[in-house]
Design goal:
2 copies of one chain form a homodimer. Chain A is elongated, with a radius of gyration of 24 Å. The longest helix of chain A is centred in the middle third of the chain and has 42 residues, at 77-118. Chain A has a two-stranded antiparallel ribbon. Chain A has helices spanning 3-10, 14-22, 41-55, 60-72, 77-118, 122-126, 134-146; strands at 30-31, 37-38. Helices cover 71% and strands 3% of the residues of chain A. Chain A has 2 domains: 1-71, Orthogonal Bundle (Multidrug-efflux Transporter Regulator, Chain: A, Domain 2), CATH 1.10.1660; 84-147. The first copy, chain A, is mainly alpha-helical and 147 residues long. Chain A contains 7 helices and 2 strands; from the N terminus they run ααββααααα. In chain A, helix 5 crosses helix 7 (134-146). The interface between A and B is large, with 42 and 42 residues. Chain A binds a DNA duplex (30 and 30 nucleotides) through residues 2-4, 13-16, 18-19, 22-23, 32-37, 59-61.
Chain lengths: 147, 147
DNA sequence: ATACAATCTAAACCTTAGTTTAGGTCAAGT
DNA sequence: ACTTGACCTAAACTAAGGTTTAGATTGTAT
């Protein structure tokens, strides 16, 4: 497979694939005599994990580190394993933060629904905590511990 | 409160606060006669939501749009409400993607635990799907639909 | 009055993650 | 041999989100 086909299969642009190659994420990609990149299924498999790591917030340089470890063989198994445990933590933290954001977002939805009903923000802006419905007050309070 | 105190309270650097101000996120911040920014509790409250939106992936320019709407008053209530519904969707999509990443990550953890036990990646690399434990095979398959 | 820390601005700089451009090569079909 | 689409590289460019620098001002404490 050539770069165009890989681009279609992965959804990454051709220039991004070349960028990844240049930065050491695509290790030992074959080339034709003329210098054209020849990808196989293993490369595609590697791209899968690259995309997954990228999507979950890992930096290019960290992914390169991982690919370097892969090339280095069995002596780096422990490092790679630890990386995946660390990345699990990172992802869970991200999810946690997003769930917390959601609380403030939902409070604001309630707030603006009330403003919409009234045709003005005034009333709801002047309300105090005790006037909020219980579930909304809870959202508000939880959100304000964090943000 | 001056910028240094706000920096400590929000965790944003002083230069970031000035950057936000310059880009229209901090609207109608008072200034002393000498030109020094004077923040009050309402400003701090606005920063809370700015930080929350930022953290959940909204761009500076979009946050500015929201702050502009806030300044414009009641005619923009609907736009602001819609923005919060849209942001809820965005966040849920992000959480979804992260949960999917987690499946591939956990498969890799199993993979490298096996490699670690064996002292080599060889055996586990050569295994085929049927040899995986049921739960791991499921992880692998689910992860490979996506990535 | 003077010292001093904290603040101010504009402008340059930085990093990350690519994209675009320009000028060339490769290889398959005619 | 020639055309054509896909590919190649290096280098410049872009955008977002800040950070750093330099030089000036503010305002509080002695």
């Amino acid at each position: 497979m050539q770069i165009g086909e890989i681009s279609k299969k992965t959804g990454l642009s051709i220039s991004t694939l070349r960028y990844y190659d240049k930065h050491g994420l695509l290790q030992n990609i074959d080339r034709s005599n003329g210098g054209i990149r020849k990808f196989d299924d293993k490369d595609l498999e590697a791209l899968r994990i690259i995309i997954c790591l990228k999507t979950s917030g890992m930096k290019i340089s960290e992914i390169k580190q991982f690919m370097d470890w892969c090339s280095k063989g069995d002596t780096t198994i422990d490092k790679r394993l630890n990386m995946f445990y660390q990345q699990e933590k990172n992802i869970n933290e991200q999810i946690d933060i997003l769930n917390k954001s959601l609380k403030l977002i939902k409070f604001k939805q309630w707030y603006y629904e009330a403003a919409k009903r009234d045709g003005t923000e005034k009333n709801v802006k002047d309300m105090n905590l005790d006037d909020y419905p219980d579930d909304i007050r809870k959202l508000y309070e939880e959100a304000h511990i964090i943000w």
